[in-house]
Amino acid sequence: MDPVPQSKEKEATKIDIFQQVLTQFIHFDKTNGSQDQNLELLIELIDYFEHRIREYPEYYEIFNNQFLRKIVKLLESTQYEKIYYSLTFMNELFSKKMISNRLINQKGNERQILELINDLLSLEQQLKHTHFELFIHRIKQVILPQDYQDNEKCNKFIKVQKEVQQQLKISLKKFQEQNNNNEFINMIQNSLCKCESVFEQQQLFTHAIQNYILEYLLIIKLYSLTDQISHLSQILAFYERLVFKVEYNLIVDHNNIRDPRYFILKNEKYLLEENFGLIFKGLATLLNMILQIPFNEDLNKRAFYIIKQLYLMYPEYQNNFIGPITLVLRNISQFALKEDSQYKDTVIFLYNLIHSSQLDEQVKQNLLKDEHLCYLRENKYFSVKALALNEEEIQLKNLTLPVFFPCFTVIQAASIYVYSINVKKPFSLVYWSFRTLDYDIQFGLFKLLTVDDYGIQDYVGEKHGIVTMMKTQRVDSHKSPVTIVTIMSTAGFYRIVFDNSYSYLRAKQLFFSIQLLEPK
Length: 520
Prior knowledge:
This protein is of the alpha+beta class. The protein has helices at residues 8-27, 34-52, 65-74, 80-93, 97-105, 110-126, 132-143, 146-178, 183-193, 198-220, 225-242, 271-291, 297-313, 318-333, 344-354, 361-369, 374-377, 456-460, and strands spanning 246-254, 257-266, 394-395, 407-411, 416-423, 428-437, 441-448, 467-475, 482-488, 492-499, 508-519. Strands 1, 2, 3, 4, 6, 9 and 11 form a seven-stranded mixed sheet that branches. Strands 5-10-7-8 form a four-stranded antiparallel sheet. Helix 8 (146-178) packs parallel to helix 10 (198-220).
C-alpha cells in the first residue's frame, strides 16, 4: 500500500476495493485461502483509513448504517470458521478509535449496536477459554455504555478483587513479621486457583496482585541472596504462567518417524500487550534482583527467556534492553560448555545480536569482545549453521508440563461442563490434567463445526456434525489426577466435555489445567 495518498481518485479506488473485499468476506469464500487474504487486506485498509480519516472525511461515509448491518450479520452464523474470521475482523475494527466512535455514535445505529451486544454476550460463554474471550472483552469495553460496564465489573470483578487484596494485605503483614512464612505465596496461588479460566487469572493477577508482589519483593531484598532464591523462583513462576509464552523442543513420533519440532505453550497470553504498564514495575524489580544472583543458573536462564521476549516484542525499545541482555548473558556464559546443547537458543540469540543490522556497531563490537561472554561464543551453536545441527530432544512420551495454577469449577448434578479449544495449527498438542474432590467424573474430547451449546446426548451421539476424538469414559479422578496428551492432527474447534449427567444427586468439584502447544 502507498503510505501517501496521491489523489482523490486513488482514495476512491481504495474505497471501491474495500467494498468489494468486504462483500467477498461476508460471503465467506474459502477457496485457495481467499478468506485469509480478504481478512488481511480488510485489516490493512481499515488501518489505512483510520490514519487518514481526518484528512479525507469521505472515509467516514464508508462506516455507515449499512456497513454496521453487514458487520452484525457476520455473527448470525454459529459455524466455527465464520465466527473465527468475524471476531478476528471485529477485534481489529473496534480497536480503531475514530472508526469505532463513528459506528457507535452515528444516528440510526442504536438497534444494530444492541444486536451486536446481544450476539457478543451469547458468544462469550460458548467461546470461554479461547482467545476469543479476550476479543469479546475488548469489543464490549468499546461498545457497552459505561454505566453497564461499571455495574458488570462491580458484580463480577471488583468484589473478588477487593477480597483478594484484603487477604493479601493480611498475609503480607504476617510474612513480614514471621520472615520466611509461605502464607503470602500460598494466598496468591489459592486466589488464582479459584478462577474458572486463565483469562480470569490474568485479570486478577494484573489488577489485584501486582502491587502486593512489588511490596513482597522489596521485603525480601533485605534477606541474604541464598534466602531470596526460593522466593524469587516462586514469583517468577507467576509471570511465566500468566504473562509470557513458553517454548518446548520435542520429538513427535508420527508414523514411526521421529520428527523434532518446537512447540509454543499458548494460554492466549494477550495480557502483556493489554496491561504492560501495570506489570512492568514489579517485573523490572524481579528481573533486576535475579540478575544480581549470577551463581544461580536456573533463575538466570528463566530471566533470559523473559528479557529475550521483551526485546523481540518491543523493537522500539531494543536499545534499552541491551544492558539487561548483556548482564544475563554474562551470568549464563559461566555455565556454558563448548558442546552443551541446552544453551542453543541463548547462543544463537547472541550470534544474531552480533550480526544484527538494527543494532549500533559499537554495541555489537562490545558483545563480540566481552570476555565474560567467551564461553557462549565458543559454543558449537555460535554459527550460521547452528540450526542444521542435530541434538538430543525431549521425548514426547516423557513430556510433563508444570500444571502451575489450575482453574476451578463446580459441575452441578446432572450437568456437563465444556472447555473450548481453538486449534489454529495442525499437529498442535493439548496437554490436560484434572482431578476431582471426593467423587469420580466422566470426560471426552470432541471436534465441532459450530460453537452452539449441546447436551451430552448430542456429543455421545455425534449429532450436528460432532466428531468424537476420545469417547466419554468414567475415571476415579478423585483418587489420582488424570493426565492426557493429545495430538490434534487438524485445525478446528474442539471441546473437552466433563460429564456429570449420570449423577443426579452430587455436584463435582473440578480442578483442571488444559494447555495448548502450537508448532512453531
